[in-house]
Amino acid sequence: MTATSLPPGRYGPASTRRGPRRTVLVTVLAVVVVAAVAVLVWFGLAQSTGVSVETYGYQVKDAQSVDVTFSVTTKPGTAVICTLEALNDAHAQVGSKDVHIPAAENQVTRYTATVSTAERAVTGMADSCRTAG
């Protein structure tokens, strides 16, 4: 088998050409760096609010109200305001309520609140919480 030579000057000096291996390595490294930055930003934003909420359940009482049970996780001694929602079967919001949660000694506390609705709801949920004041 004979070796083929490239036409002189056509592809530039051999030392400046990049092979596919280096391109793949640079691409993989860039993806890893972007993913790491995204994870750090995600955790930074999650820690900045210091408040999280989780819906535990709901009970449709009648055509005008739904009870929502939820838990709030925050630093002890922090008062929060949580927004609750009631949705109909078309996923449209038919009720909303801001619930003021007083400061508690525990990090995790559970509450149940009633949301008034404009029409019959099929679900209720805790949408978000934020620190009061």
Automatic annotation (TrEMBL):
The keyword Membrane applies. InterPro entries: DUF4307. Keywords: Membrane, Transmembrane, Transmembrane helix. The chain crosses the membrane at residues 24-45. This is DUF4307 domain-containing protein. It comes from Luteimicrobium xylanilyticum.
